[in-house]
Amino acid sequence: MAGNTFGRILQLTTFGESHGKAIGGVLDGFPSGILIDFELVDRELKRRRPGQSKWVSSRHEADEVEFLSGIYQGRSLGTPIAFMIRNKDQNPADYHHLENVYRPSHADFTYQMKYGFRDHRGGGRASARETIARVVAGALAKQILSTEKIAVTAYVNRIGSVVVEKSYQKLNLSDTEKSPLRCPDAQRASAMEEAISLAAAQGETLGGEITCVITGVPVGLGEPVFDKLHADLAKAVMSINAVKGFEIGSGFKSTSMTGSQHNDLFYSDKKEVHTRSNFSGGIQGGISNGEDIYFRVAFKPVATLMKPQHSIDKEGHEAVIIGKGRHDVTVVPRAVPIVEAMAALVLADHWLLSRGRRING
Amino acid sequence: MAGNTFGRILQLTTFGESHGKAIGGVLDGFPSGILIDFELVDRELKRRRPGQSKWVSSRHEADEVEFLSGIYQGRSLGTPIAFMIRNKDQNPADYHHLENVYRPSHADFTYQMKYGFRDHRGGGRASARETIARVVAGALAKQILSTEKIAVTAYVNRIGSVVVEKSYQKLNLSDTEKSPLRCPDAQRASAMEEAISLAAAQGETLGGEITCVITGVPVGLGEPVFDKLHADLAKAVMSINAVKGFEIGSGFKSTSMTGSQHNDLFYSDKKEVHTRSNFSGGIQGGISNGEDIYFRVAFKPVATLMKPQHSIDKEGHEAVIIGKGRHDVTVVPRAVPIVEAMAALVLADHWLLSRGRRING
Amino acid sequence: MAGNTFGRILQLTTFGESHGKAIGGVLDGFPSGILIDFELVDRELKRRRPGQSKWVSSRHEADEVEFLSGIYQGRSLGTPIAFMIRNKDQNPADYHHLENVYRPSHADFTYQMKYGFRDHRGGGRASARETIARVVAGALAKQILSTEKIAVTAYVNRIGSVVVEKSYQKLNLSDTEKSPLRCPDAQRASAMEEAISLAAAQGETLGGEITCVITGVPVGLGEPVFDKLHADLAKAVMSINAVKGFEIGSGFKSTSMTGSQHNDLFYSDKKEVHTRSNFSGGIQGGISNGEDIYFRVAFKPVATLMKPQHSIDKEGHEAVIIGKGRHDVTVVPRAVPIVEAMAALVLADHWLLSRGRRING
Amino acid sequence: MAGNTFGRILQLTTFGESHGKAIGGVLDGFPSGILIDFELVDRELKRRRPGQSKWVSSRHEADEVEFLSGIYQGRSLGTPIAFMIRNKDQNPADYHHLENVYRPSHADFTYQMKYGFRDHRGGGRASARETIARVVAGALAKQILSTEKIAVTAYVNRIGSVVVEKSYQKLNLSDTEKSPLRCPDAQRASAMEEAISLAAAQGETLGGEITCVITGVPVGLGEPVFDKLHADLAKAVMSINAVKGFEIGSGFKSTSMTGSQHNDLFYSDKKEVHTRSNFSGGIQGGISNGEDIYFRVAFKPVATLMKPQHSIDKEGHEAVIIGKGRHDVTVVPRAVPIVEAMAALVLADHWLLSRGRRING
Fold this sequence. Notes:
Four copies of one chain form a homotetramer. The first copy, chain A, is α+β, with helices and mostly antiparallel strands. In chain A, 25% of the residues lie in helices and 23% in strands. In chain A, helix 3 (131-146) crosses helix 7 (332-357). Chains in contact: A-B, A-C, A-D, B-C, B-D, C-D. At the A-B interface, strand 1, helix 2, helix 5, strand 12 and helix 6 of A face strand 1, helix 2, helix 5, strand 12 and helix 6 of B.
């Protein structure tokens, strides 16, 4: 209700400001008896970490997660799993110049107005550092999903104007992690690198897109009419910093197709029902139909620039702002595990929910 | 939790199958003492109604809403407002041929699999007729918003391949309702009509886009980190039948802009803070910043075609399906009040919620 | 959130004022495929109905329930089950004298102050007539429970000063419905009748207690630490009009027992674990342990008296109030099905919830 | 939904096992700009702490709370306030003998059956140590309430068979904290001490009752029909370990009163409406009426005894259990701040909620 809790049966509550003591969360409703794969958690956190390449921010975040509850002898107890990551490397003096100004296209102004008071250091609660808690919880949710062979995989399909034209079916998604930009199309990845280098040289930043694919989803997840599976996915990813758009299956392209081009025809194969095309994106009427679920997410360019911008301060006086230190030219590659995490949380929640909705089987 | 309730402080629960006894809803949390404008409710319902033009379905739906509770002497009591619309014009025999088949890109298959049993008549609960309840509730929500001068207006900006290129600022939105297609750009509206006529002649259907603009929003609505205002808007509209995509502000176009192109610079005018551009779409960090909120929604083409399609029946045998009676070539114009309704519900809920979050003022 | 929705997976939303158009509800999350026993619904409603004996109010309420959705061909669809009961026998003139006065120990004053406006006729939303919707939903919830052999049975164990001393184990609960007062102890029932006759002669009213017993509950229902099974039962029954107290198992009597008197010792019988006593009332640590769940509920005396009472009107002037028509001397016998209904809703919700919490089995 | 979150606008999520790394919580929805009184938090924790008197358990718990987020420069940010208390003094070896047995009237058996696996050390999540998080959150909630002059005060009114006969109005509640047993009636407190000494000598334990009084409550808190203020209070306190009963106002005693004895007559005094008696306990129709709210809570005797008890182990074999170390003879005095905390959370939540429900004022 107060905005920091997500999910129903599997319920994540997060907390933490960028330069407060810690970032963390409580994951409630996690089933008991699951042997926790802590390495997976670390691996996912590492995927999200800054400083992975020459273009991204150099803040050294070890991001060591400490689990505080809900796990005993390596297994989940069925009680809330609390975890936190201590914030380090914080030097308040680095932020004095931002205390009274509103950075353009950040949340400085809206937080100040909504709460009348804010922690200006590194964006406070509005910092993308908040997503660490999502990634930890998502890594746990993936462990629920893997008991059902449901897999969530995302990759970068656009940086700035450089787009991967191939559909996900024509890509080898196992190549994603080999690429520093998490783009499985090596040729486009290299063009993306150039675009980033160019932007960096100009003190500029870039946005992009992420495609996420979910395989192995059983038929029947999703709760119409409001909690349709794709509606929940939309909310989940739209709540990630810098996201401006979401489309499922054919998405915006569907608007220029005709009905007969777009309809996914059913056929029966060895007693399983499938569709010949999958413009629906694996969801019909808000309920998974057993095909792959795939969606695309738009990220705007990073708001912090390495060149001067005009803005105002709290008193309404003009101010000039310029990013200090090193900042990401683009956050899209680092957002891949975040998108996966949110998708995993939605899928795991709906899967658990679907168990409670059925009386037989 | 079970999928048919939406909102927190202002909470809508809907019910009803297309060919059951009634469609309706319960709107709880509606503030007391508001003089209800019943004509507005009727007007909104009429906007949604089929049969408004030569292309749309001719099912005669009087859609007379009956209010069952929560209103006394024309004013809201602060108790739940229940309402219903009796279903008429239902002839079960018309649907016998659909009892055992799965129409392509409808919810027949997924409902059958999820619930093991379904009301096949007219799509049952999955019918777009369900949105009647949303429109009634949205019309009530608009009456909360109007106490604050918040206005929600949507229009059609694409049918098939015909797109309105002008931004909403360059259009006269008061022209929207003069157009049978709810497109305020008369020239494009006429091209849309041609596209629809052509599609109709071919037994085809079309999709399109709706743009929604919300003006007069005070600074401070939205509850980060999960219940960001645009995340809730995304869920709300993605839960409407046939919606495949959502974008706020610059949306997907932001991905090819640079940071300095995209950032909205603040300035101070008569003690009010504004931004020179509004790529953010009126929301920063998940909280309204006082600028117009605008978003765009993608609708896929209608799934029911007036020409034969291959499909299967419940036993997996092949079947050929063809639409009977008259069906919409496109639902986009009729979806305009539905999009507005969902947006109004989100805004009213967040506005009421923001009152509970503040201790002073 | 707004107060008229109860439950999580099985979620009831109710609506209706006493003298508005209708009383009703929407039960969402009801599993699909259950053949609805409509006669059970009618039977439960009849148990709640006024006019069952010489002492109770004579308002003629046919209380015919109409189901509006969620059921097709006699079976539940898994979609929301909406139902309503039209209000009849309403003559607004009967209530003119109450329009501006606050009846003692009714909700007139608090509703007026909270909402600034109220429907004074028959108590409006605060009328016990609201519980009709609970009884309908409870009758449906019982049908979920019966698939698991869980049974909910309540009876009157006190009217005024007349108490049933025997514990429920020593009573034949199948005798309950044979007694007009729903007291299975014939000797005490007869003393209760005398007490009621005496109170009636004096224009007085009486309160009492109801004991509720739930058998067949599997081990494992309840969600610590806040949603303990007995905490949810407490809230459910405390939300019924006129209830002033709740105790589970040994209840208030436990306070004067020692630990060794009160502890329920475990033993193993044919591989099943049981306890030799059941002061815990079938719940330990908030989770059902497989023993009978039993609790007791206190009802205050009816507030409407057949003799004059001093009060004030909206302007603060003194007023004298006297009940018109015929009113219940006590509502406790009629509250038996209401208590059962609320208990059934809680148990069914927790049972469905427990299915979503477990990954294996 | 998963049981460890409480409240709506002010929402507490707790975590932690007795002998895990930490106990803690996240309090979301706390209004911004409140100067936090950390000493009050410490004082409340100290009131709850074991080892306060010769009879209570000697486990040394420093219970130092660390705030992790949501507070900056001593003020609340409006973002989630996370806090934790590290567990100390834990020696797993002390609990080996309990790993496979089910202690009578504890949650060992039900946790084992529900989750298939448990942390047996000190009761794990079912330990009363969990209530530390409630006390911290309650101390914060009190700081919201004090902005409105709402005060929550509780005291012990029964230990075993020793009862305080005087009503709370006749007691000087400011004496409560002077008494090691938190009983403001010095004469009865001394009888309670004797009863406890006697029980201790016999290896026995005792239960008791707590009365809680809430003053300064504005008219209008509570959300009928399900979220009545006293229904939410009932759930809140019934969720505390060892609670078996709850009564508001006249409670169970109301059942033997007549209507004219029980009705609270209104009168008008200096334009304020009051009632001459207060059997309603400050709540009518589920909504606060401006009078004092008071309720009573029953606690069963402590289940851990210092003498042998028969039980069984996981395989169903007989086992003898005897408490090791030192344990509380009674927890009732220490439960006083816990009851207050839960009441404060309910009141603060309803107060914030009432702000969101009103459109004017």
